[in-house]
What does this fold into?
Amino acid sequence: MPSYTAPTKDMQFLLHDVFKITEADIPGYEELERDFTGAILEEAGKISSEVLQPLNAVGDTEGCTLENGVVRTPTGFKAAFEQVKEGGWTGLDMPEAYGGQNMPYVLGTAVGEMFSASNQAFTMYQGLTHGAASAILAHGSEAQKDTYLPKMVACDWTGTMNLTEPHCGTDLGLMRTRAEPQEDGSYKITGQKIFISAGEHDMADNIIHLVLAKITGGPEGIKGVSLFIVPKFLVNEDGSLGARNGVACGNIEEKMGIHGNSTCVMNYDGATGYLLGQEHKGMRAMFTMMNEARLGVGMQGLAQAEAAYQNAVVYAKDRLQGRAVTGVENPDGPADPLIVHPDIRRSLMDQKSFTEAARAFILWGATMIDRAHRADDKDADGLISLLTPVIKGFLTDKGYDMTVQAQQVYGGHGYIEEWGMSQFTRDARIAMIYEGANGVQALDLVGRKLAQDGGKHVMAFFDMVKSYIKENAGQNEALDRDFLEPLKAASKDLQAAGMYFMQNGMKNPNNALAGSNDFMHMFGHVCLGLMWARMAKTSADALAAGTDDAAFHETKLATGRYYMARQLPATAMHLARIQTGADTVMALDAASF
Amino acid sequence: MPSYTAPTKDMQFLLHDVFKITEADIPGYEELERDFTGAILEEAGKISSEVLQPLNAVGDTEGCTLENGVVRTPTGFKAAFEQVKEGGWTGLDMPEAYGGQNMPYVLGTAVGEMFSASNQAFTMYQGLTHGAASAILAHGSEAQKDTYLPKMVACDWTGTMNLTEPHCGTDLGLMRTRAEPQEDGSYKITGQKIFISAGEHDMADNIIHLVLAKITGGPEGIKGVSLFIVPKFLVNEDGSLGARNGVACGNIEEKMGIHGNSTCVMNYDGATGYLLGQEHKGMRAMFTMMNEARLGVGMQGLAQAEAAYQNAVVYAKDRLQGRAVTGVENPDGPADPLIVHPDIRRSLMDQKSFTEAARAFILWGATMIDRAHRADDKDADGLISLLTPVIKGFLTDKGYDMTVQAQQVYGGHGYIEEWGMSQFTRDARIAMIYEGANGVQALDLVGRKLAQDGGKHVMAFFDMVKSYIKENAGQNEALDRDFLEPLKAASKDLQAAGMYFMQNGMKNPNNALAGSNDFMHMFGHVCLGLMWARMAKTSADALAAGTDDAAFHETKLATGRYYMARQLPATAMHLARIQTGADTVMALDAASF
It folds into this structure.
């Protein structure tokens, strides 16, 4: 069975050596001393390896079952959930006023990677609750916050997000779920929602559904959508649970993976709901959750890749097959370990150089969210808004590719379920789909985010990369050659693609949209290239200063050189594709497919 | 549920318009008139759509079960197998002397694509039998052929290939299964083999296992491996079934996909076996099957991509989400179909332009096998030997990517099992692994095939591409620009990569092997580019000649232009990676991963 070791050291390196978080001018960051974050990450790593990871295969094998409207989670999930709750992990970055610990989002993200890597299906119960609580925090009345947040922060009550209906996924304007206003100010919600993760289960006393619906008589389409709180059990004035509400799980889906999480069809039959935020502004309220949720999904892409990579390394070192072409390396054994073979190395280096940079990218993104929220920094908000589709789309596409590569290291043993590598691949697949399929992320990036605020944020990004290169060039020949020059070339490719869109997207927007997937990928590469440049600089400085952990920093530099040499050149291919425009993409009639 | 329509028209175009098979100087090809192949393909398409495809989901859901040593195949498999047998499909390209129809391999390959696309797990029972029968045909004594082939050609008895053991997959020199010579000339086979597809099941009267084992006292390592025929039931002199042999299925594996095929642990406990071919030459005999088997697996990569693509198209046309950015296209509906969106187009064009060229590549490869076998053409044999790892590795890597893209078109509906898209992805995954994992294919290509016969075959390949471009250039400006020039550029990239290997592989073979995966992929792109150039020329000529099927040929040209513009430029990226050599790939100690 697979194992998982939390990458605590790598996270500490990023938080303290690369991003120097305690020096950042963000309220709350001054408390994040190295020892403090180290202790928290150590503890989170322990629970991940010892409690969550051993349940990962159990969840996959048993799945969830629905009987008489009751969903049973896999053996051991409930006890583990209690343990996570007791450890205070569910409220790590939630306000103290509601029982949380008020830690910055960046720390919650680091812990989230560990939890997701060790058991994605399990961690989603908590993750969805976090998202729903964040929406109530941002848009709820004081009474709503007081009623729901303490319970949700503790995960005594869990939360869900209800968007999709059978006939509408991305296009929520087509929504049919209705909200009928009642005399007491509440609404009667009627309709069917599908793909509701954690929609029904046996680990919480109550489930707080956030449901998008159209108020009768409101505007047509997306402009008439409002957001409602629909608790499974109505809540009495004193906070105790009242009557069962008119919402029920009609079915749970058989899925490719994340079997441990119940994906429910939820039927609302005149269920009592309470407006969250303003009438007809449901999409805005939902999007509060969405940016965080999308960063969280990007993090899942990284997390599965990391877990799969760790196990691929174990196997590559253990499994004896063939001999190194450059001479026997394990003379006492019947064969050399897989890891001597160059193509196995290539695969492991692909994985390692991706996960380490992806982790940097995610944590960097999380600091921007903190800066936006805690320091009310509009530029940080704009930048993370621009980068969100890149984090979600690129990291889940690549993260999936990496789990497939890790699985491949196992040969036939990767295909059978016994070794657990298939589960990583099957679980990772969902991240490319939910919270907006990756094609929608690419569309969001190219169709909306590039031009947002007059293109201000993408210009700021390019300026930042340019400044970084300028400030750091000429100090270290090896860094210039191996990191800054490739980054400059990749960034130029990205700018050329943006320029192509500007020049050709006006006459035909398809010229931009046909390149949206390529643009998202090249943007991702540039971001990871930037992360590698920053990590390399940090490690080169540490080595120059005579660090006593030279092996760590040498490895970091070698891994970064691999990425810059072998992965970053993909930007040229993406640019070449983009510059062919929409002609070949849109040439055929629909009937010709 | 998914559906499948056999691409008969496309196959006919390839066989007759592009490859002009009846004019090829290959014995047996003169019979392959258009009407004749059309009738066969039509019939095969019918059985695929109506009999095999409806059982595909059944096989996935039910899987195989093992009880008291008996493996039960999914509901309906046995009846369908009888139908396939009665139709004579199992012996299509087998010799008439053994009950076959003596059709060329190319026709068997076209039919094989249909069967695999409609039900891969089911078709493997027949496919393994074909492989085992081919080995007996090539290496068996007359008596062995007479005993086994008539039954195997009819699939009354099925066959298996037994290579892998728990501790050795690719490195068969580590094999532990023993063959003890007996006085009557037979052997007692003892050992355990794993991952044996169709190792035990309820659809045949007997199962003929081909088993690699080491004869006691023979040479060490791979040089001491021999191949044995080990029937499940011993066969009496009169051909009737005798005693149960000492071979049993100990377990069947839980797998990511191909659930309808039983993947068995086979225990040989002093089982009676008969030497097939020469003592200690087992690998050579096994490799007879292997080239065909690898082409067959490449074909599976195409087949799953084709089936998945067809269903992605159906969904993209049906599902209404959002509006075209260039103006409403379905004004009477609540939204436009997915297919109006450029990124959905991009995905469908990726898939379509891949599958059509992959089909051409496979059929072209099959003509080489026919030419080698039927016309005893050593050059054809050398060329297909060079291209086999490309067909297997590139087409299954890309085929898998394409099933993932097709699944992605379905959004959340692609992740749940109900729609069948997950099965395409899960089934397609195995093709990257079995018959030699794709890393082994890349190693075979770069480490063995490039230098085979003094590099003669790769030089012949480059000459062929060059000649093709030279002969066809300057006749049609659009063809030159859209097809020949990109092909020339890609071919130059491939040659530059080969040159890099020659110049740098000498001092350190890792400089070549670190680029083996990239080389395999760029070789695949050049082959598909060549296929598109040939198809485009055919279609351009047809249009110039005033064909009455202009729509088909226009679509062909547009699809090809997409591939040349959007996919072929990948060769530059692969070259750039290759030219960075082994340094970054091999930089780390094993302990640093």
Observations:
- The longest helix of chain B spans residues 282-318.
- Chain B touches chain A through 96 residues (CB under 8 Å).
- The longest strand of chain B covers residues 263-276.
- The mean pLDDT of chain B is 97.
